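Holo prediction. Input below; ligand is nicotinamide-adenine-dinucleotide.
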Amino acid sequence: GKKQTLGFIGLGQMGFAMASNLFASTVSTHKFVIHDQNAGSLERFVGTAGKNGVSTSSLSIAATPRDVAEQADVVFTMLPAGPHVRGVYEEVVKGLRKDVLCVDCSTIDVATAREVAAWVGEKGARMVDAPVSGGTGAATAGTLTFMVGAASERDVEAARPFLEKMGKNIYHCGLNGTGQAAKICNNMMLGICMVGASETFNLGRRLGLAPSLLNQILNTSSGRSWSTDTYNPVPHLNPNVPASKDYNGGFGVTLMAKDMGLAVTAATATHTPVPLGAAAEQIYKVVAATHGLEGKDFSVVYRWMGGEKEV
Ligand code: NAD
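Structure of the complex:
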């Protein structure tokens, strides 16, 4: 029969890598249409997709989100935050046909995720929220974790074959918005742990402990976390992490401040106490507002605390 078309909107740090994997693994079975408000990332995608002799004859660029929706059977979005998702889907719904599946992989608030899913539902189309954990490395490697909120098991199963091309763990969390809920909880934990690791290493250093020795000890003791053993905020304890590259690349401190804000807002709405989440949110907001740190990875909280200053 006619080839199905996959659409991808938002080719930033994450979307670019995810769409690259999806395109490469479906190039013989599907058509692919991409859109981003930044023309440069579209050109870069077309240039990269055609490397290694891969044919790009099934790949096209759409001028608007609506144009993507009019062509696609499945629409993926990977956008910065709730307002962008709202704006893009206001256009997408104008072009949606019945039964088209929309998969939003952005990290946004639960309320927006549910509202946008309702707009899509009114068109007779379907929507799942499928935010990711893993960062740009996992996006490139195709090993992301997806947390999926969907109205039905059928919608999850429709998304699954494509999510499997971009990730290795896929969790169905419940109804629309619950994928976002899981993501927000994970990132609140991550945000708290990174602050904890940063102040811990700074204290250890000021007490005369070499960071590399303290790290060995923590990682074989009960203080271990992903922020100590995989993504350590102290420069040069882990190779290739942002902390070892002047805090460049990775997960922007502004995005972490946004995610902590989502957690605190959700906590407020449900009368849930999150004293450490709230404190960490404020810390990332201050770091994001600090001259020279705003474009850095969130682990730069270690530098902000004075971790590189001479004792
Ligand atoms: P990014 O800012 O690099 O990419 C966003 C892309 O969306 C950009 O290319 C931008 O041009 C495009 N865009 C924005 N508004 C648009 C619009 N109205 N129409 C068309 N295109 C538009 O962000 P990212 O780092 O790729 O993150 C995307 C999402 O994934 C965020 O919600 C983030 O919280 C989440 N996330 C990021 C990471 C990470 O490590 N970077 C990890 C997990 C989850």
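Residues 9-15, 36-38, 41, 78-81, 84, 87-88, 106-107, 132, 135-136, 251, 255 surround nicotinamide-adenine-dinucleotide (CB under 6 Å). That is the main takeaway for now.
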